[in-house]
Structure formats: structure tokens, C-alpha cells
């Protein structure tokens, strides 16, 4: 036996045992744990889900229909695409992904949240899921890359470009405030080439940045809400919190709340409804 083999044999009992995965859970996080100067990843079951129904997401009907349709195809074993959700903050991108789990969890859909820094582990994650009967969505929330990040190439290869294909029970859903997931600079436009016939050829840097986002088969864009949309969302969530008041009663407060936060997003609407419902309940109890 070589010195290296003897060293590895002595080291093996010191390594942590592979963690058992609770496959009865519907949602997981990929976690990495430091050990002996390195890191090992494992799936950690989420014990308390942040649940939201698709119907709770207002004024994103087209996006909701598209992602639910794609997810249903996937759950039924039909052809389906990876999904990229981009656009204004607080408009329901992440919530729509979670709503897919609420709709299809009983039919075998599972959600795995993967942090950006852990995207280099995508081959290990997909290998772990290969023989499972469930359908898994790898969820990357609020995704964006800076120049040269390792996760960028790992995600690009996982989407399309690696010799080893992911199993047909895995899709990737990602949300981002950046359409192409990377910062874009004015100077990159100067590298574009103009042909004699007027045709424009983007520079190599632009082409490289676009090449990642275009590997998602479904693009869903989200836009800032109008004032009336914001108020509709507030009304929906006040009803959810069992506050039965005329709109004229709470509307001025809702608009002031949005003004203070500089946004009329769905997230702000939910925050106002929760605050208003709590104050209303407190005053009623006195």
C-alpha cells in the first residue's frame, strides 16, 4: 500500500458521514459545511415553508399563467424549460416560484434553494437527484454576477453546454433584477461593429453576457405597478387579514406608506396591509 493510500485510509474515519436527506420534505436548501479546511455540501430540509397561493399574486396574470403552465408540463413529465424572471423589485418574482410549489407540491414537485456562491456544486446536486422520482426545481433567487465569478460558468454549463446533461427531473428557475444577470457598461456598446449594409454585430463582451440569459427557455419580465394596481393589491391583502373597511378609509394611509418607501411594489403593499391590520386589531382590542 502506498503512503498516499495509507494516509487516506487513516483519514476516512475522521470525515463526517454523508447526511441523510429527508425526502418527505417539499423544500430544501443546499448547505455547505466547513470541515478540515474544506467544505462539503448537503441538502437540508426546510421545516417551515413560506407559503403563498398563486391567486395571491395580483396584476402579474400573464407571468403567473406562463410559469404555472411550464411547471405543470414539467410535473407531468412533458417537455419544459428553465425559467428566468427579471424586472422591478418587489413585484412577485420569488413569490411566483414559491407559488408553483404550493400548486404542484402534492403532485411531486420539490424546490431546492441554491445560493449563488454554491452554484459550483450544481453537478453534485443534480447527481444526488438522478434516481429520485420527484420533480425538482433548483431555485436561484436574486441572481446576478460580477466579472469572473465561478458560479457564472457553472450555471452556464448546467443550463446548456456541459457534456453531462442534467436529469429530466431537474429544472432551474432564477430571479434577477438584471435582465442579463451581469452588469452592463456603456463602453461595451462601443465595441459593436457596423457593416456596410447597416447590420449591427455586438461586441464579444456583450455576446458573452447575453449567452447566459438566453439559455433560459422562458423569460418573464416584471414591471413597476401603477397606483391603482398597488391599491388593488393592498385591498386583497387587507381582506386576507380580515380587515373589512371601505377603500376610502385606508387608501390615503396606503399611499403615504408607499411614498415613504419610494415604491408601490407588491411587497410594500403586503407590508402596509400587515401593519394596518395589526394596528386595526390592536385598537379593536382596547
Could you give a short description of this structure?
By secondary structure, the chain is of the alpha/beta class. Helices cover 41% and strands 17% of the residues.
Strand portion, in percent? 15-25%
Rg calc:
23 Å
Indicate the low-confidence ranges by residue numbers. 185-192
In which order are the strands of the major sheet placed?
2-1-4-5-6-3-9
Question: How many β-strands, per DSSP?
Answer: 9
Sheet bearing the most strands, described?
7 strands, mixed
**DSSP helix count?**
10
Question: Any overview of this molecule?
Answer:
The protein is of the alpha/beta class and 286 residues long. Helices cover 41% and strands 17% of the residues. The protein has ten helices and nine strands. It has helices at residues 3-11, 61-75, 93-104, 122-129, 150-159, 186-189, 204-213, 227-240, 247-261, 266-285; strands at 27-35, 38-45, 83-87, 109-113, 135-140, 170-176, 193-194, 200-201, 218-222. The strands form two sheets. Strands 2-1-4-5-6-3-9 form a seven-stranded mixed β-sheet. It has a two-stranded antiparallel ribbon with strand order 7-8. Helix 2 crosses helix 3 and helix 9 crosses helix 10 (266-285). It is elongated. The model is unreliable at 185-192 (pLDDT under 50).
Give the SSE map.
Blueprint: H1 3-11, E1 27-35, E2 38-45, H2 61-75, E3 83-87, H3 93-104, E4 109-113, H4 122-129, E5 135-140, H5 150-159, E6 170-176, H6 186-189, E7 193-194, E8 200-201, H7 204-213, E9 218-222, H8 227-240, H9 247-261, H10 266-285
Parallel strand pairs: 1-4, 3-6, 3-9, 4-5, 5-6
Antiparallel strand pairs: 1-2, 7-8
